Amino acid sequence: ISEQGVRHLVLDFRMVQGLDASAVLGFNKLDQLCQRFGVRLYFCGMRTDIGQVFMHTRFLPNPSITVLPDLDRGLERVEEILIAEGEGNAELLAAAQEAAAAEALKEESVTMHRMFGGALDQEALLKLIQSCETVHLEGGQKLFRRGEAGDALYFIESGQLSVLVMLENHQMRRLRTFGPGTIVGEMAVFAHGKRSADAVADMPTRLRCLTAESIEKMMKDSPRAALQFHAYVIKLMATRLAQSNDEIQTLL
């Protein structure tokens, strides 16, 4: 990248069968390197389960990475940008960039069927969806505040949320960013505690809200669905803990 002046890096995921936490850390480092040198990253041909790993570890969605369905689409996108730049055609370049943004926006919508399709059977998934309410947030609107009761968790279907904490100097620090396909606020719900930070929408965001009361009702009315859902959340928490441990080991 530094020696050859690379400006566009296209990665083909067709043969990738799985990812572990160390692989995600490697992609994090690659992303940081590309951002430092102004290189645009393209992820092409990812299977749904691979994309979910990236979303569960909060690596995707990423404004510096364009996700496209296949390698041909990725190469076509880069060609359009290079041609527009070579011809000095500002309108063509803007159209290519707008198409990239539209494609990324389409990829960033994750329904609950996609999120839980492999973890819950159809009956359990239907019960979970029926137990949720849809929430719409505008950019800058808070989902919850630090100190509030943890009375609900949220599934992000589209948009983006950031978790913020107030430092001693009264400045806000971003801890995490959550995109489509991720769960927010589950720790306070299952620990029966209070929110430890603020959650703010970075852009228009659509969520599904599952209250603690609805979880209790689901446990009574549909214990099988509740068991599958709890198993999914436990696995998610274990994945996040492993990711945090890897990040700590990297810093040591």
Quick structural gist:
This protein has 252 residues and is an alpha+beta fold. The chain is built from 9 helices and 11 strands. The protein has helices at residues 21-36, 48-56, 71-87, 90-107, 112-116, 122-130, 186-190, 212-221, 223-251, and strands at residues 8-12, 40-44, 65-68, 133-137, 142-144, 152-158, 161-166, 172-178, 183-184, 198-201, 205-211.
Radius of gyration: 20 Å
- Alpha-beta content class: alpha+beta
Kindly report the average pLDDT value. Answer: 83
Query: Strands of the biggest beta sheet: in what spatial order?
Result: 4-11-6-9
| Overall spatial form | globular
Number of strands: 11
User: How many strands, which pairing sense, and closed or not: the largest β-sheet?
Assistant: 4 strands, antiparallel
Secondary-structure element sequence?
EHEHEHHHHEEEEEEHEEHH
Q: How much helicity do the residues have? A: 40-55%
What's the end-to-end separation, in Å?
A: 27 Å
Low-confidence stretches are: 104-108
- Count of helices? 9
Strand content: 15-25%
Task: Provide an overview of this structure.
There is one protein chain. By secondary structure, the protein is an alpha+beta fold. The protein is 47% helix and 22% strand. The chain has 9 helices and 11 strands. The strands form 3 sheets. It has a 4-stranded antiparallel β-sheet. Strands 5-10-7-8 form a 4-stranded antiparallel β-sheet, with no helix packed on it. Helix 3 (71-87) runs antiparallel to helix 4, helix 6 (122-130) packs across helix 9 and helix 8 (212-221) crosses helix 9. The longest helix is centred in the C-terminal third of the chain and has 29 residues, at 223-251. Mean pLDDT is 83; it is low at 104-108.
